[in-house]
Amino acid sequence: MEGTQGKRIVVIGAGIVGASLAYHLAAKGAKVTVVEAEGIASGVTGRSFAWINTSYAGPDPIAELRGAAIEAYRQLETQLPGLNIRWTGALSYSGVQSGALPVAERPFSPSQVSRSQILELEPNLKNPPESASYAAEEGALDAVDAAHVLIAGARAHGAEVLTQMPVLGFEVQRARIIGVRTGIGTIEADTVVVAAGTAIATLTEMLEVPLPIEASPAIFIRYKAQPNLVRTLISSAEMEVRQTTDGALLAAEDYLDDALENQPDAIARRTARAIQRELHGAVSVEPELACVGLRPMPVDGVPIIGYLPKVHGVYVCAMHPGVTLAAIVGRLASEEIIDGTMQGALDPCRPDRFLQAW
Fold first, then answer.
1. Distance (Å, rounded) from C-alpha 41 to C-alpha 144?
2. Helix or strand or coil: residue 97?
3. Residue 55 has what pLDDT?
4. How many CB atoms lie within 10 A of CB 284?
5. Most CB within 10 Å of its CB: which of 47, 98, 157, 296?
6. What is d(CA 190, CA 10) in angstroms, rounded to the nearest whole number?
7. Backbone angles phi, psi at 145, to 5 degrees
8. What is the pLDDT of residue 103?
9. What tens digit of pLDDT does each residue of 82-95 get?
10. CA-to-CA distance for 100 and 106, rounded, in angstroms?
11. At 96, is the pLDDT very low, low, confident or very high (cuts 50, 70, 90)?
12. Which phi and psi (to 5°) does residue 158 adopt?
């Protein structure tokens, strides 16, 4: 796939993945137009715990991508000083995060820390375990703020950003994409990058290339709490929490079902009680926001990244974890689209693995 400077590229979606793609493509000299149905980071990006988590339980087809994720964010930090990432490290001591996997099966090698070391990292823990896994390289960010910083970076390289602009359809000529239809007319394009989260399946259906992507729910909670309760990111059976620089306490919980007792507000109250049981000083933990985020989850659990078959010029990015992979996928995808250099790390993610289903 030959790449040229000044290629007209429409990026559909302005979450953190679309924003990263737009920034990297524009920085390479493409004429980028971002088309977003709502506002910047208005989808699952705004409901993300935003843990840059490179650990994985079991053999991992995208281990190479995870292994490059942190370095890609480090590089972005040098390019975009406003990108505020907190490299606090992550402390895990339950389930698959406890270090039960052989080191060779992990893209990073978290260290095992003793109870005394755990208390040095997290002195407010009431019930520290005897040992835990500590990934010092990991961190988290404000995903909404990061998306805005990336979009601003894309604009600085000449990108145009159209929000509140749903995609109505596509213009295809001789099996090649030539434009994107919107309420203000057709935007001409040499390449269209579809990075619209759970809407990706609907958009590719318009091109008669349906992708098996499910909307996977998770619960995101923000609390008003005392400052300096949590120093790292804690992932345990009792809670998954981190604290922001302004003191907000953030938590992530699994979505259970739609029963009344499992609504986001009810889960937020239960999690608040768990936090108070686990942390000294958590006198008042008041929920400020509790909501469900719908993550785009390919049915086989592997990201879908690359050119669609059957329609020339359509590149898809559907992935979970989106925050972790946004920086590295933005870089690698831009090299494929602009430079024509196919990236081996993305080979397990190609859309054509679903060809037989089509």
1. 5
2. helix
3. 83
4. 10
5. 296
6. 8
7. -60, -40
8. 37
9. 999 999 999 999 84
10. 11
11. very low
12. 100, 5
Rounded distance, CA 293 to CA 255, Å?
A: 9
Structure token pair of residue 7: 């290629």
Q: What is the mean pLDDT of the chain?
A: 93
CA 315, distance to chain mean position in Å, is 18
List, for residues 15-38, the tens digit of each pLDDT value: 999 999 999 999 999 999 999 999
CATH topology of domain 90-136+215-297: D-Amino Acid Oxidase; Chain A, domain 2 (3.30.9)
Q: How many CB atoms lie within 10 A of CB 281?
A: 13
Query: How long is the chain?
Result: 358
Interatomic CA distance for residues 224 and 286, integer angstroms: 5
Output the six-digit token pair for 59.
């053999």
DSSP β-bridge partners for residue 193:
11, 315
**Structure tokens, 107:** 């893209």
CATH number of 8-53+143-212+299-354: 3.50.50.60
Per domain, the residue ranges of the chain are: 8-53+143-212+299-354, 90-136+215-297
- In the block, residue with structure tokens 């920034």: 23
Phi/psi region, residue 137 (left: phi>0; alpha: psi -120 to 50; beta: rest), is alpha
Task: Choose among 332, 352, 353, 351: nearest CA to 341.
Answer: 332
Tokens 């974890």 -> residue: 321
Q: What pLDDT does 331 receive?
A: 98
Q: Could you give the C-alpha distances from 100 to 66, 97, 131, 279, in angstroms and in order?
A: 19, 7, 12, 25
Locate 291 and state its tokens. Answer: 């909501």
CA dihedral 319, 230, 220, 73 (to 10 degrees): -20
Measure the CA–CA gap between 155 and 151, rounded to whole angstroms: 6
Contacts of 242 (CB under 8 A, 6+ apart): 49, 51, 88, 140, 230, 232, 233, 234, 249, 250
